[in-house]
Amino acid sequence: MVIIVKGQPEDVDRVVEFVKRRGLSVHLSKGAERTIVGVIGDVREVPAEQLELLPGVERVVRILHRFKLSSKDFNGDRTVVKVKNLEFGGDSIVVAAGPCAVESRELLKDVAKAVALAGAHMLRGGAYKPRTSPYSFQGLGEEGLVILREVSDELGMPCVTEVVSPGQVEKVALYADVLQIGTRNMQNFSLLQEAGRSGKPVLLKRGLMSSIEEWLQAADYILSEGNPNVILCERGIRTFEPYTRNTLDLSAVPVVKKLSHLPVIVDPSHGTGRWDLVVPMAKAAVAAGADGLLVEVHTDPEHALSDGHQSLKPPVFEQMMRDVSCIARALGRTVPGL
Ligand code: PEP
Ligand code: MN
Q1: Ligand 1 site, residue 185, Cβ cutoff 6 A
Q2: Per-residue model confidence as pLDDT tens digits over 242-254
């Protein structure tokens, strides 16, 4: 942390005292008009907002990040999250696909077979759906978990499903290979801690109105429970643009890669809200360095109980897999099985 003071010598003394009272030391660099106070030590607990209120303080620049365990400062190597035979964050691109919600055994089986044939590696499907309206389909609950597990085992693909409350973590962890924490719950801190304690890999979606820093701090909640298996997922943020459901922030991928050792995947389905934009954004995500994709697929999207408008039909998904594989290869990566 660097504090820029443009004031009297007593202003500088006050800043130095403020810092030293917190057990840290300073390095002063005096210029003609300004004094730069460099703070040495662990500055994470120094309240920059309070420092900025001191007389003569022009600016406080934080150098260390607010997030810690998810930061590259903490772990310089990339983290590879293993889920059965899959590796998120390695050289290969991992694709999770399936319907938004588990609607029935028949539907899930049809979609699962189609995505497996096209080369998907993991099955997705929500049993507990966090819907904006209480009148919308809320998911099949535990019955959905049972179906997801059965179909997932039948096809030999690991599965991911959302957990929406801390009290559900234990139950969902019995069925799922990966716990998904959705955008609306990114800052549900007790849910993050409970998911951390489960020891299961956690797919942490970016909050729809969260900064990258807040997202990585949320990841720290999981990591600080001793669970190193966190996969980040960019799924679009809310902006002023109404043409798409969300604005898919693909620049978050290289930013996160720079700041964190954790794998990051992209969900172009929720990121755009339109099936016709999913394939171009999936390709762009892999080109931007994403470690995987989370894609909604439905055999009859017109009649889907949720998110049909952003779901790909199997033939389009198949083409997407081929295209993404070409891009991965051009970048020295692979889509296993393609
Ligand atoms: C989902 O994956 O079906 C979902 C609800 O995602 P999000 O939390 O990103 O809206
Ligand atoms: Mn959905």
Answers
A1: no
A2: 999 999 999 999 9
